[in-house]
Structure formats: structure tokens, C-alpha cells
Design brief:
By secondary structure, the chain is α/β, with parallel strands linked by helices. The chain contains three helices and seven strands, in the order βαβββαβββα. The protein has a single domain, classed as 3-Layer(aba) Sandwich (Collagenase (Catalytic Domain)). Helices cover 41% and strands 24% of the residues. α1 packs across α2. The longest helix is centred in the last third of the chain and has 28 residues. 26% of the residues are buried.
Length: 156
């Protein structure tokens, strides 16, 4: 997986290397043995929107099997450490959903389908892909914290 950070200098609560490690940890945890080497992620920071959304995952440039090769994650600037890592984990669940084909975005119509169920204007927070991301975000963050703590304990 290739990760590019865009417009993030001095605006993240963590160093880019730490965020890079977290992204790779989340990907390893979510994808397991599934290969995601061809995936290109771009992570950028933005000003808060009026809707209160803390992050967004957008995909484009689908390959021949309708799974995305390029995915952008946008996170709100100046989040607390906890909110930043939770939002990053949440958006990585969407990356996993898109890359494995469980979540599909039609490039032309922008219709979203989940395991062939097409969303027909449901409240976004009630959609199955959003509920799954909400469920997994805290699991991922807890696992990441344990991983970081274990690495610190090995150094001492």
C-alpha cells in the first residue's frame, strides 16, 4: 500500500510516521491475509464542515474489477488525539469496505451499494456500512493502543 500525506505538515496531532504506522496496522488488522499492495491512499486535512463530519473517504479510478485503486481520506484539522485516531480508524474501515467490494460506489451515478443493496436515501448514519465502521473503529483503536503499549514495553 502506498500512502501519501497531503497538506498535513504541522496539522496532525501525531507525526506522519506514527500515522503511517497506524494506517498500516489498521489495514493489516482489517485485511488480514488479503493483499492490498496495489492500493494508493492519500490522506489530507481540511477545515471542519458545517455538518460536523470529522472524516470522509472518497474513491476514484476503478480498475477492471470495479474495486478502487486510489482512495482519499480527508480528516478535519486540529482534532484531539483520541478523535483523530478514532476518525482515522473509522475511515480505514471504509477503505477496507471499498477495497474488498462490500461497499461499491457507482462512478457515474454516485449510487452507493452494500453487498448489492442500493441505498435509496436512507439516513447515512443508519446505513449498514456506516454502522459497521462505527462498530469497528473502537476495536481498531483499542488494538492499536495495545500494540503501541507492547512496543513501548519491549523497549524498556
Amino acid at each position: 500500500m502506498k500512502i501519501l500525506f497531503h497538506d498535513t505538515q504541522g496539522k496532525m496531532p501525531f507525526e506522519q510516521t506514527y500515522v503511517d504506522q497506524a494506517v498500516r496496522f489498521f489495514a493489516d488488522t482489517l485485511f488480514g491475509d488479503t493483499c492490498y499492495n496495489n492500493l494508493h491512499l492519500e490522506i489530507a486535512l481540511t477545515e471542519p464542515e458545517e455538518d460536523g463530519c470529522l472524516g470522509e473517504t472518497i474513491t476514484y479510478d476503478f480498475d477492471e474489477v470495479s474495486t478502487p485503486e486510489f482512495i482519499d481520506i480527508t480528516l478535519v484539522k486540529h482534532l484531539s488525539d483520541e478523535d483523530f485516531m478514532t476518525t482515522l480508524a473509522h475511515e480505514m474501515v471504509h477503505v477496507w469496505q471499498l477495497a474488498t467490494g462490500s461497499l461499491i460506489v457507482d462512478e457515474e451515478t454516485l449510487n452507493i451499494s452494500w453487498h448489492k443493496f442500493v441505498n435509496h436515501g436512507d439516513d447515512y448514519n443508519d446505513t449498514p456500512w456506516e454502522q459497521e465502521a462505527n462498530e469497528y473503529e473502537s476495536i481498531l483503536v483499542d488494538k492499536w493502543k495495545h500494540h503501541v503499549d507492547a512496543a513501548k514495553n519491549q523497549k524498556t
